[in-house]
Structure formats: structure tokens, C-alpha cells
Specification:
The complex is a heterodimer of chains A (217) and B (102). Chain A contains twelve helices and no strands. Chain A is mostly helical and 217 residues long. In chain A, helix 3 packs antiparallel against helix 9 and helix 8 packs antiparallel against helix 9. Chain B contains five helices and two strands. Chain B has a two-stranded antiparallel ribbon. In chain B, strand 1 and strand 2 form a beta hairpin. The chains are: A mainly alpha (217), B mainly alpha (102). Chains A and B meet through helix 2, helix 3, helix 4, helix 5 and helix 6 of A and helix 1, helix 2, helix 3, strand 2 and helix 4 of B.
């Protein structure tokens, strides 16, 4: 099979870009509604580029929470990008400046699409998918923040199920042997078991511990 | 106002640093043997967790709602070897229909 390229990544992420634009709009609307103005939500999407963390910090602040609580919520949710970053590190070549910039394009969706299933990642796909998702997220946020009212809740259109469907579609071909299946099931179990008790973000980062099954031969 | 920009600045700087740390420090080199076999299982572990939380998570609670229909339809489509685009569209439509009807 030929090596996958930037274009393959951009194309593969297409269907999801629609959902990302929808959630970008709702993020812009929500942030504006809690008093972020129109510029701050756009700057946040352009710099943070991580949907769930942005929603979390804006909600905390909107509910009257402190700056510290809002920042902590977002950074806990993004803690998973530390191991994710390590997993793609061997494939991000180039100067440290270009690695720094390319690392910012890594989000759950671009990372999952770029996974080759055997622990390797396609740099081209990662960047292609990342650029499309980045543009979609910032564009959606801009529309939402400037228009300031919803085109409707993305959930009405079922877009909230798009992410689970994508992740499942990427996971299944990866589950080729017992170790991969066990890691997936253990990860899901840890995440669900912790969700009612732990702050948002902790269940996902704890689930990454399931990869320690790789220590067993 | 200043609170807003403080949050935007701190979350942005923190996230950029978290994302950059692996690629900047370890970039372009193969991972050590032991780490590589652990990282190989990171994708299935995190994807399993993301599927579970995106399907059943509702803030800090678990919920069974219309998303379950969407994900079930997606599972059938994946089993029937449908392309990923179709899988995502079918899940979205099934969830929207279930939400409109139930």
C-alpha cells in the first residue's frame, strides 16, 4: 500500500469537518453569551485548538468559577496530549521549530486518522487532517462569536454522535490481536468507571494507562 | 474582561506546551524499545475510552440517550465494511432521527 499523504488526511477528515464547524459555532455562541466578547473566543480557538477543554473552561467561568478552576479544568482535559504527543514524536521530523508548530495540529481526530494501527503514524495524514480541522474549528468559532446566536444546537442534528462513530470506525481495524482488543476494552472500562467520580478529563487520561498492557509480553 | 483574557492566555499557553513537549523533546527519533511497545497500545486504549465517553458521558454523569442508536448504527455499518464517511453520516442521521421521534 502506498504511503498516505497530506491530501489523504485532508480528505479522510472531511465528513467530520462539518461536525467540527457546528461545534465551533456553538462554542463561539456560548463564549459570547457568558461575556467573552467576540474576539476572545476566536483567539482561544486559534491558540488552544481543543474543543472539550475550551467548552469546559468557558462553562466554569460562566458559572461563576474562578480563573484557576477554569484553567485547571481545561488543562486536565488536555493532559492526554502529553502521551499522544510522545506517540507521534518519532514521525514529526524537521527542526524543533517545525516540530513545535506541527505538534499544535495534533488533536484526537487528526491523531486517530493518522494512526497506522501498529503504533506508527503518518506525518502527512496528521498534518492534512490537522489543517482541515483547525480551519473548520476557527471558522466555526468566528461565525458563532460574531453572529452571536445559534443556528441551533448541534445535538439536534445528531452531530454529537459523529465523534463516537468516527473513533469506533478507526478503532475496529486497529483491534487485530488480543493485546489491542484488551487495551481498548480496558481503556473504555476505566473511562466509564471514573466518569461519575473524577473531574472531566481525568477518566480519559487514566484510561491511557491501559497501554501499560504493552509491558506484558 | 481581564478574567476572560487571563483564561484565554493561560489555557492557550498551557495547551501549546502540553502538545509540544513530546515532539520537541523526542521528535524525529525512534522511541526506546520498552516505550514503543507501550505506546503501540495507546491508540486502542484512548480510542476505546473516547468511544465510551462520547457515547455514554454527559458531563460528570453517565447517560443512555439517542447517541446509542447512532453508535449502534455505526457499529453495524463498520461490520458491513462501509467507508468511514458513510459510517459517520449514518450515525449522525440515526441520532437526529431518534431524537426527533423519541
Amino acid at each position: 500500500m502506498a504511503e498516505r499523504t497530506f491530501r489523504d488526511g485532508a480528505r479522510a477528515v472531511g465528513p467530520l469537518a462539518v461536525a467540527v464547524v457546528g461545534f465551533g459555532i456553538s462554542f463561539g455562541v456560548l463564549a459570547r453569551a457568558v461575556g467573552f466578547g467576540w474576539l476572545a473566543p476566536i483567539v482561544m480557538s486559534a491558540t488552544t485548538f481543543a474543543g472539550s477543554a475550551q467548552f469546559a473552561s468557558v462553562s466554569v467561568l460562566g458559572d461563576g468559577g474562578t480563573v484557576a478552576a477554569a484553567v485547571a479544568a481545561a488543562l486536565l482535559l488536555n493532559a492526554r496530549y502529553a502521551p499522544i504527543g510522545i506517540s507521534v514524536a518519532p514521525y514529526l521530523t524537521g527542526s524543533s521549530w517545525s516540530r513545535f508548530v506541527h505538534a499544535q495540529l495534533v488533536v484526537d481526530e487528526s491523531w486517530a486518522i493518522a494512526a497506522e494501527g501498529d503504533g506508527r503514524f503518518s506525518r502527512g495524514v496528521l498534518l492534512g487532517a490537522g489543517v482541515v480541522l483547525y480551519v473548520s474549528w476557527v471558522a466555526g468559532t468566528t461565525v458563532g462569536a460574531i453572529v452571536g446566536q445559534g443556528i441551533g444546537d448541534p445535538a439536534t442534528f445528531g452531530l454529537d454522535a459523529a465523534f463516537a462513530a468516527l473513533f469506533l470506525g478507526l478503532l475496529v481495524p486497529m483491534a487485530r490481536d488480543r493485546r489491542h482488543v484488551a487495551a481498548a476494552l480496558l481503556g473504555a472500562t476505566i473511562a466509564l468507571a471514573l466518569t461519575p467520580f473524577a473531574p472531566a478529563g481525568v477518566p480519559i487520561i487514566a484510561a491511557s494507562a491501559a497501554c501499560l498492557l504493552g509491558l506484558k509480553r | 474582561m481581564s478574567q476572560t483574557w487571563l483564561v484565554v492566555g493561560l489555557v492557550g499557553a498551557g495547551t501549546i506546551a502540553i502538545k509540544a513537549i513530546g515532539p520537541v523533546l523526542l521528535g524525529g527519533r525512534p522511541l526506546p524499545e520498552g516505550l514503543a511497545s507501550v505506546i503501540e497500545l495507546l491508540a486502542p486504549a484512548l480510542l476505546g475510552a473516547l468511544v465510551a465517553v462520547q457515547t455514554f458521558g454527559n458531563g460528570q454523569a453517565l447517560a443512555v440517550d439517542e447517541r446509542v442508536f447512532g453508535v449502534a448504527v455505526a457499529a453495524i455499518a463498520i461490520w458491513r465494511k462501509a467507508p468511514l464517511l458513510l459510517v459517520v453520516i449514518l450515525a449522525t442521521v440515526a441520532t437526529a432521527v431518534a431524537r426527533a421521534l423519541l
